[in-house]
Write a structure and sequence with these properties.
elongated
């Protein structure tokens, strides 16, 4: 006995620009919140070192240093900035992203 399974055609994969821009915008927004959280933990640790705040969550180890938290905040915010920039570029029409041609054939960048 031979059994043949036939599947219908799925959605076509497109190569259009900006199809991930909504997800990139969402991820950038969430990463900004993560960056604020890391920075607040870094400030808390600085406050603990200066005896202005109570005990820090991590008493010893890698995560007990304020430099780690501030560095993580900077790195996460940079990733958020890059994602937001990607999403903005993906939403721009193609005419604005390519350089404009003049009559003499030379290329100039578009003004923003």
């Amino acid at each position: 006995m031979v059994v043949k399974l036939r599947f219908g055609r799925g959605p076509a994969v497109s190569r259009r620009r900006g199809k991930n821009s909504r997800m990139a915008t969402l991820a950038a927004s969430l990463l900004t919140l993560v960056s604020i959280s890391c920075a607040s933990l870094g400030m808390w640790r600085i406050g603990t070192d200066l005896e202005w705040a109570g005990d820090f969550v991590f008493h010893n180890g890698f995560l007990s240093h304020w430099q780690v938290w501030m560095g993580a905040a900077v790195a996460v915010q940079y990733a958020s900035w890059r994602l937001a920039r990607y999403a903005k570029q993906a939403r721009l029409p193609e005419a604005e992203t390519k350089p404009a041609e003049q009559d003499n054939g030379s290329l100039t960048a578009t003004a923003r």
